[in-house]
Design goal:
The protein has about 350 residues and is of the alpha/beta class. It is built from 12 helices and 14 strands. It has an 8-stranded mixed sheet with strand order 1-14-13-7-6-3-4-5, with helices on both faces. Helix 8 links the parallel strand 9 and strand 10. Helix 6 crosses helix 7 and helix 8 packs across helix 9. It is elongated and about 70 Å long. The chain binds 6-O-phosphono-beta-D-fructofuranose. The site of 6-O-phosphono-beta-D-fructofuranose has 11 residues, from loops.
Amino acid sequence: MLLSSTKVVVNLPIDIILIMKRIAVLTSGGDSPGMNAAIRAVVRSAVFHDIDVLGVFKGYQGLVEGDFKKLHVRSVAKILGRGGTILKSARCEEFMSEEGRAKAIENLRNNNVDGLVVIGGNGTFTGALKLFNEYGFPVIGLPGTIDNDLDGTDNTIGFDTATNNVIEAVDKIRDTADSHNRLFFVEVMGRDNGFIALRTGIATGAIAVMTPETEITVDGLVQVLEEGQKNKKSSSIVIVAEGNSSGGAYKLAQEVKKRTDQYDIRITVLGHLQRGGSPSCSDRVLASRLGIEAVEALINGVTNSMVGVVNDSLVHTPFEDAIANKIHTLKDEVRIARILSI
Ligand code: F6P
C-alpha cells in the first residue's frame, strides 16, 4: 500500500485496531456501475477476516435514520454484474448539519460499528471527512462516481462503464448523422469537469469537445466546424460536457445557428442512461480490488483516506486531497482530441 501524500492518512493506535469487529458500508451520491461489486468485495473480505458487516441504506440518510441491515456472504450473491446499488443512494441534506452527524454517530455507536466504508464521490468524502474530524470515527472511502474527478486514482468505479455507454450511443448517432450529413451536439455528464466528455470525444472522433478545460468559445467552435466542412467531413459530432462554461448542448446549438445556417443541426442529451447498465470488466475488477483494500486498511488502523489505483498500485489519499481539483490531468486529452479531429 502506498501513501500518495505526506499529509498522510491517519494510522490509529493499536488498541483501536484491535476492536475492528463490526464495520458498516454505504453508497452515497450519484450511483455508478460497479458500486455493487464494491459492496460485495467489502462484505466478503470482512467475513473472510471474521468481521461483521452492516449495510446502511440510502447513504448518509440511512446513517442519520439508523437504517442498517446485517449483510452476509449470500446477501451479496449475484450482484457483481448489476448496475446501480443494492444499498440505494441519496444526497442527504441533514447529514450536512452538525445535528445530523451527531445522530449518525449515535446510530453507529448504538450498533457497535467500529469502522465505516463509504462508496461515492466528492460529496461523500466531504461528509466522511467531517465524521472523522469531528468524532475521530474510522472511515475509508472508495471512489464510486462516473465523473472520474477524484485525485488519487487513475479511474473511479463506474467511469469506464459510463464512457462505454456514451460511445455505444454516439456510434449509433454517427450512423444517422452520416446518412443525413448532419451536425450533432451530444451532451454528456460531468458537472464540473470534462473527463467523460474528453475521453468519449477522443473515442468517437468528435470534431470538437466542449468542456470547462478545452475553453473553446462559440466563435472558436464555428471556426472548427468550418475547417471540417473544408476538409469534406460528411457528419460532425460535438461532445458537450454538461458543465461547459458557454452552455450545454441546446444553448451551444442555438448560438451556432445564430452565426451560420449552413448546418442541419440535431441535439441529444444522453443524461442518466450513462449511469446505468452492467459494469465493465475493468470496473468490476477495480471495485473488487478496492473493496478488499478498504477492509484491510481499517483492520490495519488506516482511516481518513480514499483508496485508489494509480499506475496499477493501490494508493491511499487523504480525503481532503482526493476531493481537490483533478483538472490538471486532462491536458494530454485536450491535445489528442484537437489533433485527431481535423
Ligand atoms: O456525480 C455524478 C453525476 O452523474 C454527475 O455527472 C451529474 O451531474 C449528476 O450526478 C446528476 O445528479 P442527479 O442524478 O442527482 O441528477
